[in-house]
Amino acid sequence: MIEAHGVGGQADLPIPLSLAVGGASAALVVSFVVLATAWRSSRYQGPQAPAGRPLPATASRLLLSHSSRIVLRVVGMAAFVLAAAAALFGQDSLTNPFFGMVYVWWWVGLPFASVLFGPVWKAISPVRTIHAGLARVTGGDPARGVLEYPARLGMWPAAIGLFAFVWLELVYDNSSQLGDVRLWCVTYLAIMLVGGAVFGSGFYEKADPFEVFSTLAARISPWRTEQTATSRPRIVLCSPLANLAATPATAGLTAVMAVLFGSTAFDSFGKSEWWLRTIYGSSLSANVLNNIALIVFCVGAGVVFAAGCVLTRAAKDVRRARLPDLFAHSLVPIIVAYFVAHYLTLFVDYGLQTLSLVSDPFGKGWDLFGTAGVAPTFWFSYHPTFLATLKVLAVVVGHVAAAVAAHDRALQVLPSTHRITGQLPLLITMVGFTAGGLMLLFSA
């Protein structure tokens, strides 16, 4: 299972590479031209922003009720207990469902679920549940900690946590050893609980790598929760791009995006024929080279994107150094698109295999949930043309959506005399990301 994780693409996908790269890049340029001529003022910020359509009051009350929150917390804790039991008492082999729950359900399934349903991890997070339980036992308020969370830290702790996970997943030699993965998860849990005790539950919004990732993915979901005049929250059906535009420009947001984008790109690069030849022909170990390459991809993605932003001319009331974080939200559609292109087959096939394995967490021949007979169909493997088309379409749609989000933000933060020409460096960056991403996808 783990050897199959992170497959970046297939060398025999039945779409010519030159056609995919050229077509995607052309679509991005054409969309920019259309936006520049037809989209003259911001549509997702200010008075012109669409308000959205509220769900019926009964549906909002039911979904946001205290009982619904408790049910979601119970589901999250049940999955946590099952994963912990498998990690502690299960077999040290790839038939242990713990690996699939971590690498497939948690890492890949979480952003997919968040795009469909909203910030899933915040709703079911066992870390938040345990933190709230400990606060109740000690008589404290889970929302308050000993110290205030420093605003200058922003999302940097989440970026570091995400890098630690992709390092474990992609380059660590023992990523399929039960003890090592278990140790990583225990360390994550300990850091989160200590951070929550020191800074309160608000710590998780910026420092929990999985909550930050889930919340960002949820920014392109069609749902958002908002307060009404009566202070009663309600769920609103809205444009995903309008939801995305409301992403706060928090410090460290660009670093989070760089890790997510760079690690996914490295996942394909690490399986390319050129890189495999380089590894086996080098005097350095494969582990050292992969570690260096992962860092280069993550840092490089952040530097290239930041350069494309700061080369523009910001308005007088906007510091140029803030531009990367102001535009970083536009990378969310690209990251989700690349997760679809890179990990869809993994999630479908090995997610089903994990569903089968969870019925027998200790390798005793049990069928606790009646899913032991579930088996992957490998449907996508038998329909390569559809798979190739879906992957290219996901990348193109993601980049066009990113161009729309970036253009709308540019109309707010760039001076009126440079609202078009000022976007050219960022457009070149987007075209480079599109072409490079598709080349990596097809070379893996």
Automatic annotation (TrEMBL):
Coiled-coil parts of chain: none
Highest taxon, organism lineage: Bacteria
Segments traversing the membrane: 15-39, 70-90, 102-121, 153-172, 184-204, 241-266, 292-314, 326-348, 386-404, 424-442
UniProt KW Nucleus keyword: no
Assigned keywords, A-Z: Membrane, Transmembrane, Transmembrane helix
This protein's name: Fenitrothion hydrolase
Species, as recorded: Nocardioides daphniae
